[in-house]
Amino acid sequence: MSSSLQSWVEEHKLSTIGAVWATAVGASVAYSRRRAPARATSLRLIHARMHAQALTLAVLGGAALAHHYYGKSSSAGKRQEDLDYGFYSQLPPATDADGNENERWSW
């Protein structure tokens, strides 16, 4: 796999899995329409969803193996540096200067 494609997939994991699932559903429906045109649409969709789920599980298993394989080559220190804690600094404080609870955080 080329490094640019691999880096894109690494950054867009959920989009990639969703695209694989949608493609599998579409391909399965198209195949079943061609192979058995008399079959009911609801049955085609059920089979297409099952095929797509099986393919998605296979892709997730492959992704887990790739993560395990490529994860061993990177150091643990680099992983710690990649974490972004900037989100938490943008949250409002739980209490104001006088110690009163912020209304956003109260139940």
From TrEMBL:
Origin species: Miscanthus lutarioriparius
Cited PANTHER family: RESPIRATORY SUPERCOMPLEX FACTOR 2, MITOCHONDRIAL
Pfam families listed in its UniProt record: HIG_1_N (PF04588)
Ranges where the HIG1 domain occurs: 1-78
InterPro entries registered for this protein in UniProt: Hypoxia_induced_domain, Rcf2
Top-level taxon of the source organism: Eukaryota
Transmembrane spans: 12-31, 52-70
Designated name of the protein: HIG1 domain-containing protein
Localization (cell): Mitochondrion
